[in-house]
Automatic annotation (TrEMBL):
Belongs to the ApbE family. Its cofactor is Mg(2+); Mn(2+). The lineage of its organism: Bacteria, Pseudomonadati, Acidobacteriota, Terriglobia, Terriglobales. This is FAD:protein FMN transferase. It comes from Edaphobacter acidisoli. Coiled coil: none annotated. Residues 1-30 form the signal peptide. InterPro entries: ApbE, ApbE-like_sf. Mg(2+) binds at residues 182, 295, 299. Keywords: FAD, Flavoprotein, Magnesium, Metal-binding, Signal, Transferase.
Length: 352
């Protein structure tokens, strides 16, 4: 009996150790607490939810994240004359301007999306936004003569980047007005995502005013971070709920930034190719592993026709897109069939 008892004991001890070891990660995860903070920057409110072992750790991570956003805003704001982006806008028409490494990376990605989209995305769109009164919420319809005068001031093809010297110049030898609005918040979200991961954060949700989101990991014990996608064709209903995990979601919509003139509604999202606000599109939602790219693409597919978007995204299998016009719904690589029947429960509204 004693020998049999020892054999049983020998079998039980390793099994018990294995059980304890396998439950250790779960115990560590369950010890994490959820923390939430907000921060105004880039003309919107950034929100971060993250899981950390204690308040002090969460505060440290949040402070680093929000400081990073402020640092990028100081580099890339087109509302601050002192920013590097504003300096480039003023000086690059006179000759090459050497840039900060991050600014150069930002410009490189911006030019990439301009080229890939054949100009549907264009960081030089600033003069058009100003001419149409969107900078200071004073919407107006410019004359054709005013728009014609801007032709040499708008066009991504005028941006020349030199990776060897990390410099930028404008080939038409005139100042331009670079506008980061369609990619800047995504660029900031991506920078914060990388920073938090480097800090050891395994579960967090970064929200740039509702327009660009990124989920690090999942809410402990769940499949991801739930994100409602509104159906703009059926107000108060949802196209679906996404479990976002280690990826980004961006939404383009004209629910907040627009003006009405003579009964006509003008959206703040422009087609640089026509020099006019986009018409007929209600909302675009894009899921992409990169927050920078999802932000840019939500504008690209807003400006392009659904058919153009399908052709472009056919070469990008990791990208999912949902496009609502006033009369159509187009899902590209989207899981499920959100265009068929909207869900019946009330959803949140998209942000610009």
């Amino acid at each position: 009996m004693a020998a049999r008892g020892r054999k049983l004991e020998q079998r039980l001890i390793p099994a018990l150790l294995l059980a304890l070891l396998s439950s250790a990660p779960l115990t560590a995860q369950s010890a994490l607490q959820r923390f939430h903070q907000t921060h105004p920057a880039m003309g919107t409110i950034f929100t971060i939810d993250l899981y950390a072992p204690d308040q002090a750790t969460a505060d440290q991570d949040m402070t680093l994240a929000f400081n990073e956003i402020d640092r990028l805003e100081a580099l890339l704001s087109n509302y601050r004359p002192s920013s590097e982006l504003s300096r480039i806008s003023r000086e690059a028409g006179s000759g090459p301007v050497t840039t900060d490494p991050e600014t150069f990376r930002f410009l490189t990605r911006s030019v990439y999306w301009s080229r890939v989209s054949n100009g549907a995305f264009d960081i030089t769109v600033g003069p058009l936004l100003r001419a149409w009164g969107f900078f200071f919420h004073q919407g107006r319809v410019p004359t054709q003569a005013e728009l014609n005068a801007l032709k040499n001031k708008v066009g991504w093809q005028h941006i020349a980047l030199d990776p060897q010297t990390r410099s930028v110049s404008f080939t038409q030898h005139e100042p331009m007005e670079l506008d980061p609005g369609s990619i800047g918040k995504g660029f900031a979200v991506e920078s914060v995502e990388k920073l938090l991961r480097a800090q050891g954060v395994t579960s967090a949700f970064i929200d740039a005013g509702g327009s660009t989101l990124y989920a690090i990991g999942a809410i402990p014990g769940t499949a991801g971070w739930p994100v409602d996608v509104p159906d703009p064709q059926h107000p108060g209903k949802l196209a679906g709920t996404i479990q976002l995990r280690d990826t980004s979601l961006s939404t383009g919509a004209c629910t907040q930034k627009f003006f009405i003139k003579n009964g006509h509604r003008y959206c703040h999202i422009f087609d640089p190719r026509t020099e006019r606000p986009v018409e007929g599109v209600l909302q675009t939602t894009v899921i992409d592993p990169s927050a920078t790219d999802s932000d840019a693409l939500s504008t690209v597919v807003f400006v392009m026709s659904p058919a153009e978007s399908q052709r472009l995204l056919s070469t990008m299998p990791k990208v999912q897109a949902l496009i609502f016009t006033q009369t159509t719904c187009t899902a590209i690589h989207w899981t499920g069939d959100p265009c068929r029947t909207p869900n019946l429960h009330k959803g949140s509204q998209p942000h610009d």
